[in-house]
């Protein structure tokens, strides 16, 4: 159903080869380009786009709630995720090789194959970030009875941007004060300065501006809590893989990965367990937007990982994390 839009764009560019640089016909070109992007998404990803629309609505709701509770002006997101929130159709549609098709550098079949892969990857990546952020913001909202406020680094904003490799310090994204108690939050905190496995959320029940261990390269102060977030159905069946010569290969082998065709593959479940082994938190949680089978739940709990399942976008279902943080703070 998108092929008609594709041919209209190809014919238009064929008649006006310099259209991208012409002000007079540029608007017509952009209109045809947008029409192709939207029709492709509607034809191939209608169900996924409905899901994106609903989840963004839920995410904006929790953002407003956090702004109300903490009296802040807003939330900092990464550049790409902010674009996704602002106009998800435009952001996702940008993954299509529209210009290559318009210039006949690719065939319709190649355009479709590349487009399906790019759009699927974009949706998955952004919805993963969305749920991870939602889990973190839910923890913040659940502190509301304790009169919380942001005390580092900004009083007027919450920063959810991921830390960049190579920074001299491993600083928290933000620190809150709740009834006089301090909680330092890290989003995808780095192990060392050269990359490595990134737990989704790390929390320290104290004020800490740098989690490096002095004189221990690549080592950090163990967090009080780690929270791993899973948002897709049957996430526990998934595997990750990496080239045998990459840094990740060493981590995957430590997690019990198997080597095939110069790649190391490991099950998602084992990665979660190795996070606990490497980072040595006092407590670790797995929060899942969807259901988790009893066998998987018991397997994680045997390794000391608490499971909160079927959270959907209901923030108080994560209140157990807040209770744990408050309890650890009292130890």
What are its keywords?
331 residues; alpha/beta; seven-stranded mixed β-sheet; three-stranded antiparallel β-sheet; 12 strands
SSE layout:
Layout: H1 3-15, H2 23-44, H3 46-70, E1 74-76, H4 79-86, H5 88-93, H6 98-102, H7 108-141, E2 148-152, E3 157-159, E4 174-178, E5 181-187, E6 201-204, E7 225-230, E8 239-243, H8 247-254, E9 258-260, E10 263-267, H9 268-279, E11 283-288, H10 294-302, E12 305-308, H11 319-329
Parallel strand pairs: 1-3, 7-11, 11-12
Antiparallel strand pairs: 2-4, 4-5, 5-6, 6-7, 8-10, 9-10
Helix pairs in contact: 1-2, 3-7
Compact overview of the structure:
This protein is α/β, with parallel strands linked by helices and 331 residues long. Helix content is 46%, strand content 17%. It contains eleven helices and twelve strands.
Structural features, described:
By secondary structure, this protein is an alpha/beta fold. The chain has eleven helices and twelve strands. It has helices at residues 3-15, 23-44, 46-70, 79-86, 88-93, 98-102, 108-141, 247-254, 268-279, 294-302, 319-329, and strands at 74-76, 148-152, 157-159, 174-178, 181-187, 201-204, 225-230, 239-243, 258-260, 263-267, 283-288, 305-308. A seven-stranded mixed β-sheet has the order 2-4-5-6-7-11-12. It has a three-stranded antiparallel β-sheet with strand order 8-10-9. The chain has a two-stranded parallel sheet with strand order 1-3. A hairpin with a 2-residue loop joins strand 4 and strand 5. Helix 1 runs antiparallel to helix 2 and helix 3 packs parallel to helix 7 (108-141). The protein is globular, with a radius of gyration of 23 Å.
């Amino acid at each position: 159903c998108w092929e008609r839009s594709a041919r209209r764009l190809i014919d238009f560019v064929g008649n006006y080869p310099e259209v991208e640089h012409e002000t007079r016909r540029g608007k017509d070109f952009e209109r045809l380009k947008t029409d192709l992007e939207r029709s492709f998404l509607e034809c191939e990803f209608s169900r996924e786009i409905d899901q994106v629309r609903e989840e963004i609505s839920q995410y904006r709701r929790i953002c407003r709630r956090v702004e109300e509770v903490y009296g802040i002006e807003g939330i900092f997101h990464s550049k790409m995720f902010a674009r996704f929130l602002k106009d998800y159709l435009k952001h996702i549609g940008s993954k299509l090789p529209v210009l290559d098709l318009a210039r006949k550098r690719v065939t319709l079949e190649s355009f479709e194959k590349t487009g399906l892969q790019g759009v699927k990857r974009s949706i998955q990546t952004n919805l993963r970030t969305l749920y991870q952020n939602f889990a973190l913001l839910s923890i913040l909202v659940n502190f509301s009875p304790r009169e919380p406020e942001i005390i580092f680094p900004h009083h007027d904003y919450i920063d959810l941007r991921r830390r960049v490799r190579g920074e001299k310090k491993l600083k928290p994204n933000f620190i809150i004060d709740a009834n006089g108690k301090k909680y330092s939050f890290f989003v995808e905190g780095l192990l060392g300065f050269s990359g490595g496995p990134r737990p989704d959320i790390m929390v320290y029940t104290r004020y800490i501006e740098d989690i490096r261990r002095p004189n221990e390269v690549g080592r950090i102060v163990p967090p009080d809590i780690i929270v791993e977030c899973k948002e897709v159905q049957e996430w526990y069946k998934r595997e990750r893989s990496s080239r045998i010569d990459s840094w990740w290969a060493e981590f995957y082998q430590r997690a019990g990965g198997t080597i095939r065709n110069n790649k190391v593959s490991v099950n998602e479940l084992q990665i979660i367990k190795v996070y606990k082994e490497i980072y040595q938190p006092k407590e670790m949680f797995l929060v899942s937007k969807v259901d988790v089978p009893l066998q998987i739940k018991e397997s994680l709990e045997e390794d000391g990982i608490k499971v909160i399942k079927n959270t959907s976008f209901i923030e108080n279902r994560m209140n157990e994390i807040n209770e744990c943080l408050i309890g650890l703070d009292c130890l």
